[in-house]
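Dataset card, provenance and construction

Sequences and ligand SMILES were collected as paired inputs. For each pair, a complete structure of the chain with the small molecule in place was predicted and serialized as structure tokens. The example below shows a pair involving 2-oxoglutaric acid. Curators did not alter the output after generation; any descriptive sentences attached to a record were derived from the structure itself.
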Amino acid sequence: RLQGGGPAPRRVAFIPDPCAFSYADFVTGFLLPNLPCVFSSAFTEAWGSRRRWATAAGKPDFEYLVREYGDVVVPVANCGVQEYNSNPKEHMPLRDYVTYWQEYIRRGGSSPRGCLYLKDWHLCRCGPDLEDVFTLPVYFSSDWLNEFWDVLGVDDYRFVYAGPKGTWSPFHADIFRSYSWSVNICGRKKWLLFPPGQEEALRDSHGSLPYDVTAPALLQSGRPLEVTQEAGEMLFVPSGWHHQVHNLDDTISINHNWVNGCNLANMWHFLQQELQAVQREVGQWKDSMPDWHHHCQVIMRACSGINFEEFYHFLKVIAERRLLVLGQGEPGHGAGLGLGLQQAVFDIGRLAEVLASVVAHPDFQQVDTSTFSPPPRDLLRQLRDALEAAEAL
Ligand SMILES: O=C(O)CCC(=O)C(=O)O
Ligand SMILES: [Fe+2]
């Protein structure tokens, strides 16, 4: 069960005014109840990318993009080809993708190469000064996934999407049941949003979810929430909501995935389901294979990108940074955590709840934790002690 599942709203809320909408408004109104919302373009008015990546007419500024990023190799998906419920990806310099795109426009929206969509480009890794591109809105600043990866220095979940009118992303829920936010730098997107659980009605006889929910055979099963996201607007996609996305114009967007104390339990629930799916697949070897539990974790890591050991490591890194903040009694000091003491206490509360469930999980008890430092139960004790101390203040 996902946290924040309640009755689904009939329409997506619209937030017009940055001055009249606080971080606390977002947490209580949308993050905790796990509901989508659209922020007006006033929220992104000052972003450099909105001035530099698009022309005055609201079209992608191809010349600028090629000048600035032409040599960067970007991932490109073919929207027309389905491979295991996603698209096959190739890599090419941005310059070549822009050439393709301009040609696609000249031909009136077609190409012998098919419908190509630049997806999941990690802009951060090619080193531009991100301050010139966008400013992280405070609403999305408690972002443990990117905080964790920034500490490790190996990955991130900050993406650019760009493609001609007609490109689209197939039906999916986001990685680890993370939240996502998306800002259209130029162009518009149509989003089809399904509250958690509503995707169950869409499964076929094998239990698989559809690739394209707009296929005629599926139209009768439960209408999704539909939103048109205009240029400059920012959409919040809640945790575990399935969605499908269509670019209505030539569109460039910036999208981040993130996890924090509000959806951490959803992530943990998702990881348990992923392990169960692996265990079902290889169940017939359980009795004959001495390291069966270990192998399940190895397979899980290959399929899901993370296993129970790494999830513990994630919790540990985030927890220790919060403990540091409390220990020093100085909000954000050293750890660069902008949201202060109260946020650290909230985070530790949520970390303690999930960690308690992790250490009690029979499959986590099969993991060799002898080299983990601190041992999981010690970390849990530290978190509980810190909470007690904070409550006593
Ligand atoms: O814009 C798209 O094509 C997909 C974006 C998406 O799925 C997301 O931000 O979660
Ligand atoms: Fe998504």
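Derived descriptions for this record:
The pocket of fe (ii) ion (ligand 2) is lined by residues 172, 174, 180, 243 (CB under 6 Å).
The chain has two domains: 13-258, 264-392.
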